[in-house]
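Dear colleagues,

As part of the handover before I leave the project, I'm documenting each prediction I ran so the next person doesn't have to rerun anything. This entry is a single chain, and its sequence is reproduced below.
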Amino acid sequence: MNPLLPFLMAGDPSLEALPRLLSEAKALGLPALELGLPHSDPIADGPVLQAAAQRAINRGATPLRVLEGLAGITDSPDLILFTYLNPIYTYGYDRFHHDAAAAGADGVLVLDLPPDEAAQNSELKPAPDLRHIQLIAPTSPTERIASIAKCAEGFVYYVSRLGVTGAQAEIASGIAEQVAIIKAATQVPVCVGFGVSNPEQAATIASKADGVVVGSAIVKLIEQNGSSADCAAKLEAFVKPLVGAVHAL
């Protein structure tokens, strides 16, 4: 089975809405999702995710408040926290990992912390409380892929295109070849993201990889409908075909 891995920004449309969104995600049969921690300088994020992070920050979302909110949620898919080093470092590296695990998070993806840099700084070495997801770029040479893949826990996130996040009209080329190279270097699943926005794209990528990440398209829908009473219904209507597309293979 090729799982869909959706992305939500914690605090958008509100922190109060997060338990319902996570419960609905689980009801749709989603095994896991990425949950973004709002950050004021998200260098890998495109305009849709940047705007969502800023909306969440404006409404009072902080890493501490997000983790406090997660601690009371019992009905949720597995959660991968999608964040940057600065908020974790400010929070306290060890403390963040402990608190995130205690709140129910299963893994963390720190976008701007390469594993070799973590190894060179004792205070940034992977803590045991969470699985550390690793990113691999389309420009990574084979030896770099092997080095990163051997550190991966949970899954490897293959970034299918250069640049920042954002829905695209067409998927990137060379995905099957790159996924094969990564899978030869690791035993963990390989998920592909950056640019996936419709069921056809999701199905194509799911035929080549172990999972498909869909972020900006979902976050844009929340931006457009977050204040309306039928936001949940519209999200379900958007996500269901994506789920069907990746599970039909």
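The two ends are 8 Å apart (CA to CA). The chain has a mean pLDDT of 90.

All the best with the project,
I.
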